[in-house]
């Protein structure tokens, strides 16, 4: 299953990288190693660490501007996923027929490693990390890249792995054309980032389904049979790849399902059957059963031993800022779910815990529709503590569904209010449903501030 595709793009010439973050700097290093004349351009300020790397590598760069005349001379453009397709510079480049691609697309030309690619609106990071953990434990020489860890391009340039687990966002997929996943996973598709997709759900769904482009009959497509939007996409986007659905609602002949004894059953053609009781999983909650099913299907395709899979699923510890247990103080559990930046992620979080929950939420609202959360808020949430500058929509959405909604002036204040409201057996859950950029630099800083506040109680 070779993945080398040297002929799709120029293999020499003037390579311009737009954006000097992790993916951009990695692509610049790989491009230089492959003989390109490389120039990195960032309209913002480049961090000191990345600036030092570019200087050490002898790669030309500019910051706080895009020198359009120079950029338009490019043979090939590698673009940061954060730059939208409708940006004037991108439109000009495409009008001039200069190829604009993602770092993943660029780097994939230079490897024949197996590529296990995971996308979805929720659960990507957990499933990617769990898969990586499982494959490592199974003795696979595996790298971890995409939306997580060191850039794929940098690892292709400087490492030598037999396989990669790649967490891939829709923004990355939008600039991928010839890339081929040996195993493509779509976990779920729920409204997120719709502002980048003309507020059209079908455009966002189409972006996710770019994951299965170019797959052959030797490849695998893993997807959730219980996810409405994914099922809608199946009829419109065809692939020759072998289908491995996972479900908690029915029994499937191949794929993953739950039997009557609450065992996860994983069946892949020509491989031995895997079975494990749901209660033995280290990651609990309905959504984590789905994540384990997806990871288990990848592991089974890779022919990992059942014992290795079972031990991995029993021992895996979740990533930071995603349903991360911080402390139990006075019988109250404090959970850091700062990575939950959309409504669906919060729905998953609420679904994972029993009542009573004190929910800390708020921040920069991306046009959230809170309707899908209302039933869970009614049945599980005893109070909402709002963070962030604009809390009006949270008050309007939930004022009839929970007894207490209060604003806070800081994360420290929010945690102190929550601890005052909580009784023994309750859960204080930071799951914001919003971006963090009003009070914090990013969701990581928000999560760290939450943990600091909890530990100072």
Q: For the CA atoms, what is the radius of gyration? A: 23 Å
Multimerization state? single chain
Give the beta-strand count: 20
Low-confidence stretches: 1-5
Structural class: alpha/beta
- Enumerate the strands of the largest sheet in spatial order, edge to edge or round the barrel: 7-8-6-9-10-11
Number of helices, where a helix is a run of at least 4 consecutive DSSP H or I residues: 17
EC number: 6.3.2.9
Keywords: ATP-binding, Cell cycle, Cell division, Cell shape, Cell wall biogenesis/degradation, Cytoplasm, Ligase, Nucleotide-binding, Peptidoglycan synthesis
Function: Cell wall formation. Catalyzes the addition of glutamate to the nucleotide precursor UDP-N-acetylmuramoyl-L-alanine (UMA).
Main location: cytoplasm
């Amino acid at each position: 299953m070779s993945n080398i595709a040297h002929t799709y793009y120029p293999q020499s010439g003037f390579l311009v990288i737009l954006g000097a973050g992790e993916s951009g700097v990695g692509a610049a290093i790989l491009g230089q190693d492959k003989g390109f004349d490389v120039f990195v351009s960032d309209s913002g300020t480049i961090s000191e660490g990345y600036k030092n790397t570019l200087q050490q590598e002898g790669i030309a760069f500019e910051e706080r501007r895009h020198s359009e005349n120079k950029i338009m001379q490019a043979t090939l453009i590698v673009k940061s996923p954060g730059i939208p397709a409708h940006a004037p510079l991108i439109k000009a480049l495409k009008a001039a027929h200069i190829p604009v691609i993602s770092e993943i697309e660029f780097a994939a030309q230079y490897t024949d490693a197996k590529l296990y690619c995971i996308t979805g609106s929720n659960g990507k990071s957990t499933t990617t990390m769990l898969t990586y953990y499982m494959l490592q434990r199974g003795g696979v020489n595996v790298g971890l890249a995409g939306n997580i860890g060191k850039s794929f391009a940098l690892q292709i340039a400087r490492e030598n792995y037999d396989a990669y687990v790649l967490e891939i966002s829709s923004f990355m997929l939008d600039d991928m054309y010839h890339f081929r996943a040996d195993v493509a996973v779509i976990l779920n598709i729920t409204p997120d980032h719709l502002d980048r997709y003309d507020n059209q759900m079908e455009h966002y769904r189409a972006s996710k389904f770019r994951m299965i482009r170019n797959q052959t009959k030797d490849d695998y497509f893993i997807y959730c049979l219980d996810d409405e939007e994914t099922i809608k996409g199946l009829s419109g986007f065809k692939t020759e790849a072998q289908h491995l659905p996972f479900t908690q609602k029915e029994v499937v002949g191949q794929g993953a399902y739950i039997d009557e004894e609450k065992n996860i059953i994983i069946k892949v053609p020509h491989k031995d059957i895997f079975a494990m009781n749901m209660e033995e999983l280290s990651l609990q909650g309905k959504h984590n059963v789905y994540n384990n099913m997806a990871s288990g299907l990848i592991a089974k395709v890779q022919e990992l031993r059942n014992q290795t899979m079972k031990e991995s699923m029993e021992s895996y510890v979740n990533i930071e800022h995603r349903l991360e247990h911080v402390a139990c103080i006075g019988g109250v559990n404090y959970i850091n779910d700062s990575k939950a930046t959309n409504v669906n992620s919060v729905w998953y979080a609420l679904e994972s815990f029993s009542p009573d929950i004190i929910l800390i939420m708020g921040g920069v609202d991306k046009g959230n529709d809170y309707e899908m959360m209302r039933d869970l808020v009614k049945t599980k949430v005893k109070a909402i503590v709002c963070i962030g500058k604009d809390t009006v929509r949270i008050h309007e959405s939930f004022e009839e569904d929970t007894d207490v909604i209060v604003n806070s002036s800081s994360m420290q204040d929010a945690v102190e209010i929550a601890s005052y409201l909580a009784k023994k057996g309750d859960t204080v859950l930071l799951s914001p449903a919003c971006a963090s950029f009003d009070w914090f630099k990013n969701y990581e800083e928000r999560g760290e501030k939450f943990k600091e506040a909890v530990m100072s109680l």
